[in-house]
Design a protein that fits this description.
The chain is of the alpha/beta class. The chain has two domains: 203 residues, ABC transporter type 1, transmembrane domain (ABC transporter transmembrane region fold), CATH 1.20.1560; 245 residues, P-loop containing nucleotide triphosphate hydrolases (Rossmann fold, 3-Layer(aba) Sandwich). Helices cover 57% and strands 12% of the residues. The chain has 17 helices and ten strands. It has a six-stranded mixed beta sheet with strand order 6-7-8-3-9-10, sandwiched between helices. Strand 7, helix 15 and strand 8 form a beta-alpha-beta unit. The longest helix has 54 residues. The chain is elongated, with a radius of gyration of 34 Å. The relative contact order is 0.09. Its main location: membrane.
């Protein structure tokens, strides 16, 4: 089963788990070693002094062990529940901070704070319960400690009275077992930390030991000497792991010829972007095959495969660094200044970059907020073509832009699409009329395929209906 953990919850889990383990392996670990040595030494001295008295007093020790066991069991369940609640609260914070502009635009700050407070209330109540159990357990440990004192004095007095022991041996047994019982009491106070640490260790190892079905670090597989760019989807069926009840593709078959532009159109949710996700091997199909130049993608070296593809998405991700660094990100090795400027010119980005006060050294801000949508898109295009991909993947690269920005970006795309296998996902049908092939996706399969003119000639066809709806929407 695939673990699907939200990013905020994952961050909180790793932070809390590491903190819990640190608590145990720090001062508490020293106390644990100290208590263990005290226990061994105490029993050795007590048995050497008066083994009969020691055996009688030891009868109290199982109660301490029973108390420890019960306390650990209670704290175990409390710790697990509290961690889940804290992860939920952290997820609310992570989403709110990451989307702070959206939160502010809807004046939802108080609502987010209220949601977070409610999540924390549950954690606080769980913490109070855990504290009560820990306090009762520690109190019981002290009770057993004082009962041990009483038993030792009472039995020791009887032994001295009957001449079976001496005053000196009784006090030697007493002090040896008192310190031993005191050490056990200290250990019981650590029950909460040790329980949390055990759970945290299991949790961290579960994350570390998890192996992805698609390992990006693996060097296994084939590397083709020459890539033409012929892509074939053969009877592909696919469901997203996070939505196993929704069938995205069912017997999806599509051939994409080398060096041509293939456009994918269809209603929202029809699976257009899923084609790109499967080509990049972010996912593997449930059944069927996807091949590049006749070789199934699963048999190719993953890193090499992704090097052959350049991806430009609808909302490009830029890192909080300079424009130069963001463009150079597209190449594995070091990119020269000449290469960066060349791809920037090809992406129609050099002119606006040069007009900036710091030029290529301009920091784009977090997620590229210092640049406009069109500027971010052109930087992303430059980054994609720096790797000189044989296959270019354009996932609605111009859908979120205004007319002027779209024209600049489209001109850049027209330059880089030449002699490459290009797959275009678009909502704006006007941008794909010149595509070599248009594939219409509906109900998880290819409903129609052909050029714009031939598809428009099909009366009542899916593509013709989409164009008609788009025309009406544009006119209104």
């Amino acid at each position: 089963m695939i673990l699907l953990i939200p990013s905020g919850a994952l961050g909180a889990r790793l932070f809390i788990d590491a903190l819990n383990i640190r608590r145990l392996v720090g001062d508490n670990l020293a106390i644990l070693v100290q208590c263990t040595i005290t226990l061994i030494s105490g029993f050795a001295i007590a048995f050497a002094s008066d083994w009969k008295l020691t055996l009688i007093v030891i009868c109290v020790i199982p109660f301490l062990g029973l108390q420890n066991y019960i306390q650990v069991k209670f704290l175990n369940s409390f710790s697990e529940d509290a961690k889940v609640m804290y992860e939920d609260a952290s997820q609310v914070v992570a989403e709110a901070v990451g989307s702070i502009r959206t939160v502010a635009s809807f004046c939802a700050e108080k609502r987010v704070i209220t949601m977070y407070s409610k999540k924390c209330q549950a954690t606080m109540k769980q913490g109070i319960r855990s504290g009560m159990v820990g306090g009762l357990g520690f109190s019981f440990s002290n009770l057993m400690l004082y009962l041990t004192y009483a038993l030792c004095f009472y039995v020791g007095a009887q032994f001295v009275h009957d001449g079976k022991s001496t005053f000196k041996d009784v006090f030697r047994v007493y002090f040896a077992l008192v310190f031993t019982a005191f050490g056990i009491s200290q250990t019981s106070a650590m029950a909460s930390d040790s329980t949390k640490a055990q759970e945290s260790t299991t949790s961290i190892l579960a994350v570390i030991d998890r192996r992805s079905k698609i390992d990006p670090t693996s060097d296994e597989g084939i590397k083709l000497e020459k890539v033409d760019g012929n892509i074939d989807f053969n009877h592909v069926s696919f469901k997203y792991p996070s939505r196993p009840d929704v069938q995205v593709f069912s017997d999806f078959t599509l051939g994409i010829p080398s060096g041509k532009t293939t456009a994918l159109v269809g209603e929202s949710g029809s699976g257009k972007s899923t084609v790109i996700a499967l080509l990049e091997r972010f996912y593997d199909p449930d059944s069927g095959t996807i091949s590049l130049d006749g070789t199934e993608l699963k048999n190719l070296t993953l890193s090499w495969l992704r090097d052959q593809m350049g991806l430009v998405s609808q909302e490009p991700v830029l890192f909080n660094d300079t424009i130069r660094a963001n463009i150079a990100y597209g190449k594995r090795g070091e990119a020269t200044e000449e290469e960066i400027i060349t791809v920037a010119k090809a992406a129609n980005a050099h002119e606006f970059i040069s007009s900036l006060p710091q030029g290529y050294n301009t920091n784009v801000g977090e997620r590229g907020t210092q640049l406009s949508g069109g500027q971010k898109q052109r930087v992303a295009i430059a980054r994609a073509i720096l790797k000189d991909p044989r296959v270019l993947l354009l996932d609605e690269a111009t859908s979120a832009l205004d007319a002027e920005s779209e024209r600049s970006v489209q001109d850049a795309l027209d330059k880089v699409m030449v002699s490459r296998t290009t797959i275009v996902v678009a909502h704006r049908l006007s941008t794909i009329k010149g595509a070599d092939t248009i594939a219409v996706i509906k109900d998880g399969s290819v409903a129609e395929k052909g050029k714009h003119e031939s598809l428009m000639g099909i009366k009542g066809g899916v593509y013709a209906s989409l164009v008609e709806l788009h025309s009406k929407a544009s006119a209104s």
